[in-house]
Structure formats: structure tokens, C-alpha cells
Amino acid sequence: MRVIKGEEITKVVRELCIDANINLPKDVCGAIDLAIEAEDYLPAKNTLQLLIDNYQIAAKNQVAICQDTGLACVFIEIGQEVYVEGSIEDAINEGVRQGYADGYLRKSCVADPLRRVNTGDNTPAMIYYEIVKGDGLKITVAPKGFGSENMSAIKMLVPADGIEGVKKFVVDTVRNAGPNPCPPIVVGVGIGGTFDKAALMAKKALLKNVDEENPDPFYAQLEKDLLEEINALGIGPQGFGGRTTALGVNVLAMPTHIAGMPCAVNINCHVTRHKSKEI
Amino acid sequence: MKKHITTPLTVEKVRELRSGDEVLLSGVIYTSRDAGHKRLVEAHKNGEELPVDLKDATIYFVGPTPAKPGQALGSCGPTTSYRMDAYSPYLIKECGLTGMIGKGKRNDEVIGAMKEYGAVYFGAIGGAGALLSQCVVSSEIVAYEDLGAEALRRLEVKDMPLTVVIDSYGENLYQTGMQAYLDSRK
Q1: ipTM of the complex as predicted
Q2: What φ, ψ does residue A195 adopt, rounded to 5°?
Q3: Do β-strands B99-102 and A153-157 pair in parallel, antiparallel, or remain unpaired?
Q4: Which residues on chain B are in Cβ contact (under 8 Å) with A104?
Q5: For residue B68, what are the domain limits?
Q6: Nearest CA to CA, how far is B38 from chain A (Å)?
Q7: Contact of B154 with B62, CB cutoff 8 Å
Q8: Contact between chains at B177 and A120 (C-beta distance less than 8 A)
């Protein structure tokens, strides 16, 4: 049994909150850099250049890339041979509290969806636990902005809808979102499982590197087809027209019921943030 | 060629702006978003005096990050505007608001009020919070401090890069821009 102190978790969560909000991950920077080369529509090219300027200014001045520093989504992969001293939940929330204060990040969390009083420290974090083999502990912080979150959707497709039904739902969701989620976007798709599992897969798909190819050739092809269809819509950067509506599409799938084919689409903006560390 | 414009935006100035124009905006603007809009409209409906005069004023839909030492304001890109659609027509009609800065679609009621009374909707680059903060010369909280990031702030901005998305004639870049791109592919 490996013992990990709560303070160690707090320290890592604090660092990851700050790092994720200030330094755009390399995969996303790379995707924007590639997009500007592939984009031949001048207004779109100019807009993409501003996005590049923006992530460079954020890194240079060590300020938040985007003012919506999001709800703090924290993914924990904890080995079954690990014992955490103290409350793991308290340790994570303390890390969020410190990171959002010390990093000059915005506190965007209200304590109740209807009564809407700000908690003042961006807690509670949205925490997802996964118990895995071994004695490791991996923490991923993925701050999630709500301009894009609000454009996400889920549909209980049926088997007869097939792959065409999935494509139509994903592309329709992006088309309906239009300029709202700050395109160019990153699209996370979850197919299968139950209602809730599909939504979680869609969110987890956004943690994958945007340029990462699906290990299953069938889904790699689906990702490629979806990206092509989305980038034929013409929405473009900021919705001002252009090729670059999405930087990437990631799909996760899992077993499901003989009667169903849940499909969830989680949309993220060009500030798709995710930073991980193993303790 | 970018146009330099300065607030306050009189209806006369607004009518000269056309969808697709790229502008550099300077002068005083106010920040407000979901909770702040609700308060402004409720206060006005109750006959209370508003904390700021919105005649010919411009509101920026934004909730900035806290300023680091040496910054006037933290990162401050636009928030999605449709959430203010419930309030904007009232502010245009009853309070004389002429400028809005945000990102994303507006509904027909907002566009109708913009056409009738003369108001313009600018798009700022969504997600470009670090870049836009460099345009802020000064910032002070005027009201609703308890709302934190959503407080009503008075900003002085210099050469803020904006695009006229919907003009006071109802012309909408989100439709024409996409169509122009698709036509260029034919």
C-alpha cells in the first residue's frame, strides 16, 4: 500500500489549475498553427493570427489565455494500491481554491443553479474518479468554459440511426452552435454506454490530444469524416466565415444496450485546456 | 482599412457603421453580463436611477479575470451574447444604449430594436482575453461589486479591435461571412 498525503494532491492541483489556464497545451497550439497554413480565406487567416498572438501574450505575461477560466474539471486516476491520507475531495478543492486565487483566475462557480450565489473561490471542482491497477495517481485538470459547454448536446439515438445518424447529430450540433462557442472548436463525441456514460465519454474525448488519431481505424475514419464535414460548413474562426470551424474531433465509444445508441457531443473552444501530472 | 471610432456612439455615428467593418474602438465603455443586466433592467423598471447613464453608451459583455499587479484589468474576452437577448432590447429602447460588444448570435427582437432605435453589435475575438486586456487603459467598479467578475465596471479602452457583426440596418456578418466563404469555394 502506497501512502499519498492530501497536501501533495493540493499542491499538484494548484499548479495544474494555473498552468492549464495560462499555457495553452502544445497540441492545441500546434493545431492552430497548422490551421492558419491550411486556411486560404483571408479574413479567417487574420482571425487565426489573433488567436496565435493571444496564446503567445498569455504565455509571455503569464496571464489567463481566456477570461473564462472555467469550472475546474479534475480527473483522478487512482491506483487501487494507493491510500490517501485525509479527504481526497478536500485536498482537490483546496488545490483549486489556491490555484484560482494565486493565478489571478476568474471565480465562475455559483453554489446553486437556481439561487446563483458565487462561491467566491471556484470550488467545488467537478471531480471524476477512476480506480485503476497499481499504485500510481494521475491528476488531470481541464478547466471548462461555458460558452462552448452551453452548445453541447446529447441524443438517445437508436440502432437504426446508424453511423449516418451519428454524423448528422454531431454536424447539426456544430451548425446550430455557429459562432457561439468561439470557433475554431474542438469536438468531443461519446457514443454508446448509457445516457450518463455517453456524456462523460464526450467530455473525456476532449482530454485527448487534438491531433491524436483514434487507435481503432473505424473510429479514426469517423473522426476524419466528421472533421471534413464540419470544416465544409463555412462557419470559420469566430463565425466570420472560413474553413477552420474545428481543429479536431475525438470520438470515444463503449458497449451499449441492444435497444440504444446514446450519442453526446461536448464542444470546446480553441482554448481547449488540459494539463496532467502523475504523483 | 480599420476605422477608428470613439465612444459615446451617437445614433448618427452608429448609422455609419456597416456589418463587416473592422474598427478600433477607444473611449469609455461599461462591462455587464447576465446578473448585471438583470439588475439594470429591474432597477429601471422600478423607476430607480441607474448607476451609469446608458444614453449613447456601449456595454461590453464580459466578466474579466482579476488584474495582476501592473495590469488595469485581467484577461477580458467577450462572453456569449445571446444570454443578454432578454435584456438588450429594453436597454436600447428605454435607456438609449447604442453599442454592444460580445460574441455569437442575437435574436430577432434584439436586431429589431437595433434597427428601430439605431444600435450596433460588435464582435470581439472570443477567447482572446489576454490580447484584449492590453487595450484596457483603466478600469473601475461602478456598481454591483458583490457580483465579483460580473460587477459593473467603467473601462477606458484604446484601439480595441472589433468587427461590426450586426449593423443598425440588420445586416449580419454571421450570415454574409459564411456565405461569402462558401461562394468563394464554388
Answers
A1: 0.94
A2: -50, -50
A3: unpaired
A4: 65-68, 74
A5: 3-184
A6: 13
A7: no
A8: no
